[in-house]
């Protein structure tokens, strides 16, 4: 210990302190500050780049999500439209069928009516003709009776055949 | 592969060069004719002591050296060249005062250069206040200039390039390590910024000086107690001057402790305030000194045994310990920085 | 260096060595148990070892 104290050089201590403090101040100004600032700036820029990349990634995800949503919406809309169209089609077809049916029934009814009327007219005509024929026959019979029996018979047959033919 | 080979080559050259420096120091001891021939053990002891000592000339290798200015304050400023002492053989006259270099220290003497001793063989001569640019001071200034050059150049590269190459590629991870693994966990995100300059400077300063001390130039600065004292003192001062109320509260009036205990604990805590930087100082000094002594002693053992087997064995051991010392150089810088950060963290800790 | 000094230094080295050894052993166990916390354990180990070492050195210089 005494040797250490006796060996202690005041001059060396003085110069060391002086030079070292000067060195700290000079290095701080000319080296550490610029270097640390540059390193910090670089680290910050890297961090910023990473953050922005992260943001971009998130935005990308958002974009895909919204795309998906839009697509889904469109699909739903399309489905709804299709359903509506199908319903409309079915409606129209049903209506048309109904209308056709009603129309057909109407036509059938009309036709039936017409047929009935024709038939009635035909019956009336037939009655008239039968009446006329009967009168004719009666006329002929009356005439035949007046001639001969055979002739009367022939005449009746002839008339009956005529009627049959009619 | 070539890189690996290169690394191994550097390591071998490294340990070889320290061997060479030792050998040259050895021959220097031999050439010292003024002293009687000593045993090789004594010589090794002296060489190690010489290696660890500060000097007034900068010796690059044996024989190649340049003098450094001696600056003394002794009732006036005395400036002369460090070579004037001629390794302590000459007495130097400056403005009517006489100085002599004795065991690496400058003493004031009479014109004949007599050194007076007391009974315990302690030198009684007066010592002038020594502000010389010694070898250690010179290395500190040189290393500071180098650090300033290195890091300001590195900082300039950042001005126009976000990810610069060159030295920045190697140094930037260390800077980020100090910020993320030393400063932020120990001081906290809120306060760490104001300590960053100090922590970074002290880490690189100690680390680079430790590494410089491992070169064969014998410029171990961090194994000098005055240097580590200055560093620890700075940590101490910064801790005390940036401390908040909570820190002092924890020292003098600990919350959550019974009152009688507080009275006992306060002096202990106060003592701790001084012991912490003291341990910081001693740790760095002792580690670096011990490392140098061990490595130099191992090399010295080669000269003690002087046979091929011992040469090989101690060469290997020295190589191994040199690699260990490389690790210790960084580890001590790391621990000094880490503990400084820990103390700063305690100083600015918020009440919780 | 007197004999009591040397003995004292030896005792200090034994004590500090045991202490640091214990820290190292516990840290190893901790790392083996929780390899993911290796960094934190290492840091804590170094700090604790450094503190013991500091006291050890202080005592060595006093001895």
**What number of structural domains do the residues of chain B give?**
2
The percent of residues in helical segments of chain B reads 55-70%
| Count of helix runs of chain A | 3
- The count of strands of chain B amounts to 8
Return the average pLDDT of chain A rounded to an integer.
87
First CA to last CA of chain B: what distance?
54 Å
The total of helices of chain B stands at 9
- Cα(first) to Cα(last) distance of chain A is 169 Å
| Secondary-structure element series of chain B | HHEEEEEEEEHHHHHHH
Strand order of the largest sheet of chain B: 4-3-8
Main sheet: strands, sense, barrel of chain B: 3 strands, antiparallel
In total, the number of strands of chain A is 0
The structure class of chain B reads: mainly alpha
Task: Report low-confidence residues of chain B grouped into runs of 5 or more.
Answer: 19-35
Nearest-integer average pLDDT of chain B: 80
> What is the H/E order of chain A?
HHH
Question: Which term fits the overall shape of chain A?
Answer: rod-shaped
Low-confidence stretches of chain A: none
Principal-axis shape of chain B: globular
Could you tell me the strand content of chain A as a percent range?
under 5%
Helix content of chain A: over 70%
């Amino acid at each position: 210990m005494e040797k250490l104290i006796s060996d202690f050089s005041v001059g060396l201590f003085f110069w060391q302190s002086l030079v070292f403090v000067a060195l700290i101040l000079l290095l701080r100004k000319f080296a550490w500050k610029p270097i640390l600032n540059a390193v910090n700036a670089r680290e910050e820029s890297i961090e910023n780049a990473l953050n922005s990349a992260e943001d971009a990634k998130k935005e990308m995800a958002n974009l895909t999500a919204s795309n998906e949503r839009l697509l889904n919406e469109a699909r739903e809309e399309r489905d709804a439209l299709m359903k509506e169209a199908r319903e409309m089609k079915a409606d129209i077809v049903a209506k048309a069928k109904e209308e056709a049916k009603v129309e057909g029934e109407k036509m059938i009814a009309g036709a039936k009516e017409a047929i009935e009327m024709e038939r009635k007219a035909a019956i009336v005509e037939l009655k008239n003709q039968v009446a006329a024929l009967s009168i004719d026959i009666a006329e002929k019979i009356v005439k035949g009776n007046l001639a001969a029996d055979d002739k009367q018979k022939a005449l009746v047959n002839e008339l009956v055949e005529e009627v049959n033919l009619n | 592969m070539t890189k690996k080979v290169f690394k191994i080559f550097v390591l071998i050259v490294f340990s070889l060069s320290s061997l060479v420096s030792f050998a040259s120091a050895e021959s220097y001891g031999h050439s010292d004719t003024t002293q009687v021939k000593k045993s090789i053990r004594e010589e090794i002891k002296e060489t190690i002591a010489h290696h660890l000592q500060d000097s007034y000339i900068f010796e690059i290798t044996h024989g190649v050296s340049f003098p450094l200015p001696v600056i003394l304050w002794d009732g006036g400023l005395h400036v002369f060249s460090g070579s004037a002492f001629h390794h302590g053989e000459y007495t130097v006259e400056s403005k009517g005062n006489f100085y002599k270099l004795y065991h690496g220290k400058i003493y004031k003497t009479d014109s004949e250069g007599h050194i007076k001793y007391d009974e315990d063989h302690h030198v009684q001569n007066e010592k002038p206040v020594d502000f010389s640019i010694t070898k250690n001071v010179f290395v500190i200034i040189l290393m500071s200039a180098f650090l300033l050059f290195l890091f300001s150049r590195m900082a300039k590269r950042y001005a126009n390039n976000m990810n610069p190459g060159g030295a920045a590629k190697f140094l930037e991870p260390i800077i980020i390590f100090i910020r993320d693994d030393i400063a932020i966990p120990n001081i906290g995100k809120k306060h760490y910024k104001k300590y960053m300059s100090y922590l970074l400077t002290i880490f690189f300063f100690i680390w680079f000086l430790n590494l410089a001390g491992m070169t064969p130039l014998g410029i171990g600065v961090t194994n000098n107690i005055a240097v580590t004292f200055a560093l620890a003192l700075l940590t101490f001062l910064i801790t005390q001057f940036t401390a908040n109320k909570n820190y002092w509260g924890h020292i003098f009036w600990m919350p959550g402790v019974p009152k009688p205990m507080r009275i006992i604990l306060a002096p202990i805590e106060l003592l701790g305030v001084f012991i912490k930087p003291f341990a910081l100082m001693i740790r760095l000094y002792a580690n670096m000194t011990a490392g140098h002594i061990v490595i130099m002693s191992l090399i010295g053992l080669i000269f003690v045994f002087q046979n091929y087997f011992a040469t090989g064995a101690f060469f290997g051991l020295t190589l191994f310990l040199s690699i260990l010392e490389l690790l210790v150089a960084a580890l001590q810088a790391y621990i000094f920085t880490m503990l400084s950060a820990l103390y700063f963290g305690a100083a600015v800790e918020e009440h919780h | 260096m007197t004999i009591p000094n040397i003995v004292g230094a030896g005792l200090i080295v034994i004590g500090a060595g045991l202490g640091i050894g214990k820290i190292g052993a516990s840290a190893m166990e901790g790392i083996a148990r929780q390899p993911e916390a290796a960094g934190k354990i290492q840091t804590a180990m170094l700090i604790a070892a450094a503190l013991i070492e500091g006291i050890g050195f202080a005592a060595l210089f006093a001895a």
